[in-house]
Design goal:
Blueprint lengths: L1 H17 L13 E6 L6 E6 L6 E8 L8 E5 L3 E4 L7 E11 L2 E2 L6 E4 L33 E2 L12 E7 L6 E2 L13 E9 L9 E12 L2 E9 L6 E3 L4 E8 L5 E8 L2 H8 E2 L2 E2 L6 H4 L2 E2 L2 E2 H7 L3 E2 L20 H13 L23 H4 L5 H8 L18 H11 L3
Helix pairs in contact: 5-8, 7-8
Pfam families: fn3 (PF00041)
Keywords: Signal
Protein name: Fibronectin type-III domain-containing protein
């Protein structure tokens, strides 16, 4: 009986001892409602809620999937933290612990994830193309950043049968501004890029391609600057090369014929020759009349208007169209004049490089009587009939005759 009484006394003592409020340590609560804001391409602010009024907090973060203990750790006394020096377009994981005391720390929260923004397109010429941020993913895929957009031309310039990808990157919150049928007004810090490449075999695109160069125009303080990036053999990146160079190229065309040329990458001086207008550098291709056509059933200018990439214009119907010189349903003169416009008019036009040496005005809108094409038809026929650097036309930009273009021009000249 005495033994039972002793055991009962011991049990009651333990119960009362455990219920002594002075000896209970409150649980350190885990934070709740984690969120992120002010996310940029290299930083983010993380905030959370807590019931602990005097606690501090430990954050551990890293690229998504990192193991706890291997991330970056910071301590905060407030319910928010700014994470800096992050990688662009990257998903990060964050874990938070509440520190009530050195011996009383909460469990880690569940993982919270966020993704940093895309890097801004560079508005100065970087040493390598990847640093321009015009593309995402593997550079050789030429996947355009969502901060830029592709444009195409209804009738295109001949460049030794090379294919071209054309893109425009406008500063955030800006647009191209309508200024007639020609070039729109581009805001400062606009970047225009054109990448040249050859498919290994036009009959089987799965065999890959060889990317040669990416030419870039940047508008700064109202003036355009030029730069050219030469791609490496590995097709992993391109290096800024202002001096120009040559590169042997071979490819198989759609008919199965093997072709080769020594492709010429232009120097900055060459760029000025073609892009010169009254001694200022201007773009050549992205005139509204050259972009006013349908792609996959959708008018390109209408798409720009809808995307607020082009303002000051309500409908593409008010913009003239530069016809496609390859459209054989069009009259011969229309096709030939369109070809001369895109291939020749940037030099043979008032203010162009050849304005002082030639009376030709080859802009499509110029009437035949004022163009002087008839008066110089024999010279035109001769200068396009062969290739000789510095003598034949075009003066630069090609290393071979353009058979289809030559046939078109000569057929037209014979009618004059």
């Amino acid at each position: 009986m005495l033994k039972k009484a002793c055991l009962l006394f011991l049990f009651v003592s333990i119960i009362f001892s455990c219920n002594n409020d002075d000896d209970i340590i409150p649980v350190c609560d885990t934070v709740t409602n984690i969120s992120s804001n002010a996310i940029t391409n290299n930083s983010a602010t993380i905030t959370w809620e807590t019931t602990s009024t005097s606690a501090t907090y430990t954050l551990e973060y890293g690229v998504s999937g990192f193991a706890l203990g291997s991330g970056t750790t910071i301590s905060e006394s407030d319910t928010g933290a700014q994470l800096i020096n992050l990688q662009a377009n990257t998903t990060y994981d964050v874990y938070i612990q509440t520190v009530c005391s050195s011996s009383n720390i909460s469990l880690h929260t569940d993982v919270y994830s966020f993704t940093t923004a895309l890097p801004n397109v560079a508005t100065e010429f970087k040493p390598i193309l990847s640093e321009m941020n015009l593309f995402v993913g593997n550079l050789e895929n030429l996947q355009i950043t969502p901060l830029a957009f592709e444009y195409n031309l209804n009738t295109t310039l001949f460049s030794d049968y090379a294919h071209k990808q054309r893109i425009i990157a406008l500063p955030e919150g800006t647009s191209m501004e309508f200024d007639g049928d020609g070039l729109p007004i581009f805001p400062d810090h606009t970047v225009i890029a054109k990448t040249f490449y050859y498919n290994t075999d036009e009959r089987d695109l799965s065999l890959g391609r060889t990317i040669i160069e990416t030419r870039i125009l940047i508008k700064l303080n109202g003036a355009w600057e030029t730069g050219d990036y030469k791609w490496n053999e590995e097709q992993t990146d391109a290096v800024l090369d202002l001096a120009g160079s040559t590169l042997p190229i071979t490819w198989i065309d759609a008919s199965g014929s093997s072709n080769s040329t020594t492709y010429k990458i232009p120097s900055n001086t060459d760029c000025f020759t073609c892009h010169n207008s009254n001694n200022d550098i201007i773009p050549i291709g992205p005139k509204l009349r050259s972009m006013n056509f349908e792609i996959n059933g959708v008018n390109q200018l209408e798409q720009f208007i809808s995307n607020q990439q082009l303002t000051g214009l309500s409908s593409s119907s008010s913009v003239r169209v530069l016809p496609n010189w390859e459209d054989t349903s069009l009259p011969l003169e229309t096709r030939a004049r369109a070809y001369m416009d895109i291939n020749c008019a940037h030099c043979h036009i008032p203010g162009g490089t050849c304005a002082d040496e030639s009376t030709l005005n080859l802009a499509f809108e110029t009437s035949l009587e004022e163009s002087n094409i008839v008066e110089q038809s024999v010279v035109i026929d001769y200068r396009v009939s062969f290739y000789s650097e510095g003598l034949s036309m075009p003066f630069i930009g090609t290393t071979m005759r353009h058979t289809e273009g030559l046939n078109l021009i000569q057929e037209y000249m014979n009618t004059l």
